[in-house]
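Archive entry: two folds, one per protein. Generate the first.
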Amino acid sequence: MAKYRSRIVDNQLDGMLHRIGAVLIQGPKWCGKTTTAEQKASSIIYLDDPTNQKTYQQVAEINIKNLLQGDTPRLMDEWQLIPRLWDAVRFEVDHRKSEGQFILTGSAVPIITDEIKHSGTGRFARLTMRTMSLQESGDSSAGVSLRWLFGNKGEQPQGLSNIDIDRLAFLICRGGWPSSVDKRDEYAISLATDYYEAVVETDLSRVDGIKRNPEFARRITRSLARHQGSQASLESIRSDMSANDERLLGESSFAQYINALKSIFVVDDMPAWYPNLRSKTAIRTSDTRYFNDPSIAVAALGIGPADLLQDLNTMGLLFETMAVRDLRVYANALDGKVYHYRDKSGLECDAVIHLRNGSFGLVEIKLGGDSLVEDGAKTLKTLSEKIDTQKMKAPAFLMVLTGVGEFPYRRSDGVYVVPIGCLGV
């Protein structure tokens, strides 16, 4: 058995189990939810075990409470195969009146139905896992932590990145799938393609029992891949997928495909940020389009590292998807969220990391190079000057996050330039 790689969410799961009765770990398939939960569980029931699946279904029909018996925390893996477990766990938590009773793992968002009648508020904490960040996969030295950036007093950062342009192209294509990290490069990349094929061929239909056309799913995901990092409307994406095909998917059916992709955590769009500004400016409210992992976009487009190195514009867009993934993992560990800013004047900031205490940092994501770093720093300073610090805090930091570069540093204007191979939580 492969050695378990420590995940950033481990400490978050510990904290949740100490304060609430049940924890739902949700996220895309293959991201490591079950393995992470197994490290904390005292008893486990694998509901997708083909040997016992029918037995579990029968027990659930006769007396579902029997499935809940066992040492705690009890892991209910792939709980959604018996949706009634949700309310059964909620009821049991109410009556046991004790923390850390259950861990549920699943690859789909719980939806209120005839079989799930309660949201679980007050009984469940939700922990969203993503694919592995570069710190978790061992590809970042994590010499510059996000926590340090929020608390720094203007010091110079320390760290070293070993990621060059060739390695970066590979990491974008490999993605953060735990099972790919220790495999040979060619096999590691193939795993992302395997995941993508499973999504379009079966997972989109299994999520809600509605049969979906794999070819339409491929065309939709290819179009989404071409719009990574943009605020493209769903209608624009629908038109783009039909540009070279007379078959146009109806608006309602198209929306169902998108919602299915979101419900199984393949698509992970970023909401807009609404700061207090010195002067009235209309802020664009559209979400920014992202996949949960950059390798999904790579697989959808049918490309590889060599293709990215020949097309740095596309590589830059997919690097942004990877950078956003890592920022979300690190921010979540600090009880923060990641947003995007764009206003009517065209001023745009790739990522705003906002913590619960009101502190925030502004981040521009650039592949690398002096001119792109300079453009990013200019954008950050322009937005920073627009913020009304009488009504909200000033930015805790301004950072240009780059794909390549050996060392992090603080510019004379206060902007940090940090290679992604140095960044961590």
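Generate the second and append.
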Amino acid sequence: MKRILENNLKRQRRKNRTRASIFGTLMRPRLTVFRSNRYLWAQLINDEKGQTLASGSTQEIKTGNKTNKAASLGELLAEKAKKVGIKSITFDRGAYKYHGRIKALAEKFIENLK
């Protein structure tokens, strides 16, 4: 039990360290992700007003493996961002490493936003 608490504390410290230098605005919102073992959630946040501009989840996507679903979520979220008028973002990976599902989502989002 002690090891689980220590790991959670380490994860929270990583998240705080990453989040300390990231701030989203209306013209450049923060794209934040949450990863569970099964799904991935992402949302575009305007930190000035504290509102979510667009969001999505891999629960909506039915085909493919986890990484392909993450890439599809990136495309879906980029389309929603275009409708809102967003041209650039600040990526908040949270406590997660930039690889695998997180990397697939970010790269597809940026590719489809242009």
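Annotation attached to the second fold: The first strand starts at residue 30 and ends at 35. The two ends are 46 Å apart (CA to CA).
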